[in-house]
Fold this protein.
Amino acid sequence: MPYYIGDVIKDKNRLVARTPEEFKKTGVDVILGNGVEAIDAEKGQVKLSDGAILPYDILVMGTGADAILPEMAGQDLPGVYTLRNLTDGLRIKSYLNEKVIRKAAIVGAGFIAMEMSEALRNLGIETVVLSRSPLPVARWDAAFSKMIVEELHKNQVTFLPGTKPVAIEKGKDFALRMTTNCGEMDADLILMALGIKRNVKLAEAIGLKTGESGAIQVNFAQRTSCEEIYAVGDCCEVFNRVSQKWMYLPLGDIANKQGRIAGQNIGGSPGIFPGVVGAQSFKVFNLEVAATGLTEAEALKSGFHPVSNIIWGLPIARSMAKDEKLGIKLIADKPSGKLLGAQSISAGEGAVKRINMLSVALWAGMDLTDISYLDLAYSPTFGGAWDPIHIAAQGLMRKMA
């Protein structure tokens, strides 16, 4: 959605994977504007908000997640938005087209906040990002997060650490005025980007088991604790192949794969979803930012003894390099030398490619010795004879020796 809001994607129809009409052609009826009010698992029935009752033999729950909102006055005023789905995106786009927007405030500093800061600045809107934490995208190493702050400032996005909203009210010179713990600020648009929480109300109401994360518990076939009910997407857990534990990781590509596996099993072609290693990425202005696997804190919680190291290099061969910069952080288990996680950031291209390679290494259970001599395609245009991945692995091995 940020790329549609920022006019990178011009046609909203390109954001729709399949229309109700297209579903109809394949024998699937889509009911819009009518939510599910209750489920009777014993009778195999779903009650809709208009009172209609739909019987089922198999039920799939894809209730997703809801945006986290602080408990404060004024968050329902015109001009205050969240961005969770296409409808939200269309509303924000319509508001931007209809109003004169001079200044926008983004509350939160995660993926969506970073992407939206770029989208709004590219539209010429003064943009401020408020974060309770000292740095944005807290999952990444502080050295990488500081580089993101520099990129925000370079593109005239103001980053305000240690700042949280207290209340929002109608403004005078601007549409809105927000009171924070650090004072007041005006804005014509406020985006609440504080993260999401799994929507499990219906699941809990019928007694489905939830995991330690609070999301719906599923098995590798996406079946819940009730034999006739499956769950997919942001409402349920996923198996992490690195920690060997079930976790909550609400990402669109994971939801897509879970949906396919559930459909495959329901259709009579048994299959399992083997889990994830946690690969994720985003772009903010000229930076690629990506990660996979576990952080040190997650590794400790999973019983490992993590050791980490950061190297700074070039995404292409030195002979062809200009202003490119690439950072790679590797995290490994000291006793075994097994790779546990990786993070990367690059000015220009390079970070996501390396994280994708390291995701494959995690998937295969490789250790640092394996990674330090990986056979990678070499060309000065794409990297040196010794790729930063080799250098990072060898550097961490020396640290662990």
In short: The chain has a mean pLDDT of 94. Residues 4 and 14 are 9 Å apart (CA to CA). The first helix runs from residue 2 to 5.
